[in-house]
Amino acid sequence: MMKHHPIKIFSGNSNPAIAKEIADYLGIELSHIDLGRFSDGEISCYIPDNVRGSDVFFIQSTCAPANENLMELLIAIDTLKRSSATRITAVIPYFGYARQDRKHKPRVPITSKLVADLLEKAGVSRILTMDLHANQIQGFFDIPVDHLYSSAIFIGFIRSLNIPDLCVVAPDVGGAERARAYSKRLDAPLAIVDKRREQANESEVMNIVGNVKNKNVLIVDDIIDTAGTIVKTAEALMTKGARSIRTAITHGVLSGPAIDRINQSHIEKVYITNTIPFNKENDPKDRVQVLSVANLFGEAIKRTHEETSISSLFI
After folding, report:
1. CA–CA separation, 51 vs 18, rounded Å?
2. Half-sphere exposure of 264 (CA within 13 A, CB side)
3. Residue 2: predicted pLDDT
4. Out of 103, 121, 184, 195, which one is annotated catalytic?
5. Rounded to the nearest 5°, which phi and psi values hold at 71?
6. pLDDT tens digits for 126-170?
7. What is the CA radius of gyration of the chain?
8. pLDDT score of 195
9. CA triple 21-1-5, angle to 5 deg
């Protein structure tokens, strides 16, 4: 594994399970870090081992509680920088605040740009993440960003299911490019849902472009949060004659009424990845299936350390 500097893998508290899987793939132990709290809630950080001259990878999804996990990440990076790590890569399987990537109306922030600035100021050398909500977020950074795609995991899995009469559906026009990539690689027709969003976490399905009648539908997206959009999309597809509904969605935020909505919907199965931890006890009807992207992240970390190509993983 070593090329120029020793490699060290650290994990925050947001998603220790994926960090352990990544370390196992690389055949190394997670390095120890003490991330605690003072009595007033302030985050403390201490690294017992020497990291001087090391190539460091810090794994932390900025999922709920987003602010806590983001502050942990920033404080840990500052600690590593002040401890003379040679390079610090923030491995962020789920990049929180990515949905606030533009000014869609007056007097709102572009918080994903703010988060990018905070990470750079803290001392990050590069970013490794997966399925950003908007590709332009990569341009918010003035450091290298390696962007991984969950399609490398999902497509092989969907093929293994041998679903007949498959049709890939984008739940909105913005997701058409992602859905088209799935459609091409799965040799399945494409349909697009045209919808109008009335307010945050709510949407109204307007029209379906494409034929889904008697098709087994696979809806692909990057984030499922309260599941309102996906459930309404599924209802519209069933109205148009779809035979069954499945989804392949990278980041399972699944907040609020999400699981109840899924369980009461036409959706047979929701496939997500482990970029965000998911508690199976919250899924009594077993509608959600989690696929691991740890090996993909592990290989990307290995190639980053060895300074070889990451893009070739997706050819």
Report:
1. 22
2. 8
3. 41
4. 195
5. -65, -40
6. 999 999 999 999 999 999 999 999 999 999 999 999 999 999 999
7. 20
8. 74
9. 110
Which residues lie across from 170 on neighbouring strands? 192
What is the model's pLDDT at position 244?
97
195 as an active site residue: the answer is yes
Residues paired with 249 in a beta bridge: 221
Where do we find the tokens 């810090």? Answer: 58
As a whole number of angstroms, the distance between CA 307 and CA 116 comes to 23
The yes-or-no verdict on residue 15 having pLDDT over 80 is yes
Q: Which two tokens stand for residue 193?
A: 């849902």
Taking the model in full, what pTM does it have? 0.94
Task: Give the strand order in the sheet containing 267-273.
Answer: 202-209, 190-199, 166-170, 216-224, 244-252, 267-273, 288-291
Per the structure block, which two tokens stand in for 126?
Answer: 């590069």
Do 14 and 312 meet the contact criterion of CB atoms below 8 Å apart? Answer: no
Tokens linked to 77: 């990076």
Q: Which of 40, 43, 55, 81 is nearest to 302 (CA)?
A: 55
For the chain, the average pLDDT equals 94
The residues, ordered by sequence, that sit 6+ positions from 189 with a Cβ below 8 Å of its Cβ are 167, 168, 183, 210, 211, 215
Domains (ranges, CATH) in the chain?
7-149+295-314 (3.40.50.2020), 151-292 (3.40.50.2020)
| Distant-in-sequence contacts of 195-200, Cβ < 8 A, 24+ apart | 195/171, 195/229, 195/232, 195/233
Q: How far, in Å, CA of 202 to CA of 43, rounded? A: 35
Average pLDDT of 279-292?
94
Q: How many CB atoms lie within 10 A of CB 281?
A: 6
